[in-house]
Design brief:
With about 130 residues, this protein is of the alpha/beta class. The protein is about 40% helix and about 20% strand. The protein has helices spanning about 10-15, 30-50, 60-70, 85, 110, 120-125, and strands spanning about 20-25, 50-55, 75-80, 95-100, 105-110. It has a five-stranded mixed β-sheet with strand order 3-2-1-4-5.
């Protein structure tokens, strides 16, 4: 997929990094509530070892852009590409996945019922090395 900066995001470019994939929308209150945790994780570990990819299902590009700016989401943003969302059969948001450096999914927010994101934070710390 291609992010809003026209960077192509592919699995081959992400191997060797921890990757968090967030499915969200600007109108989704629980999605917005998880942003401070994601921002803290991103600021702590940065781009060298960790990538965050936020995939918006917003229909209104202006609301999407305003939310990204307001919440200072300074990581990869994907808008207008719901292919992965549909392929994974996601029906509700927010949804978070984490993929380890070998490309294996090691976290799913909904499956683990990790609504406080404590498990996500712990797993990032354990796998960032």
């Amino acid at each position: 997929m291609v992010d809003t900066n026209n960077d192509t995001l592919s699995s081959s470019k992400l191997i060797g990094k921890l990757v968090i994939i967030q499915f969200w929308a600007s109108w989704c209150t629980p999605c917005i509530e998880e942003l401070p945790t994601l921002k803290t994780i991103y600021e702590k570990y940065g781009k060298e070892k960790l990538e965050i990819i936020s995939i918006s299902i917003d229909e209104d590009s202006l609301k999407f852009q305003n939310a990204v700016k307001k919440y200072e989401m300074n990581w990869h943003q994907v808008y207008g590409d719901k292919k992965l969302f549909n392929e994974l059969g996601i029906t509700t948001i927010p949804e978070l996945y984490m993929i380890n450096k070998n490309g294996i999914t090691i976290y799913n927010r909904e499956a683990s019922k990790d609504y406080s994101l404590l498990l996500l934070t712990k797993l990032v710390e354990e796998n960032i090395k």
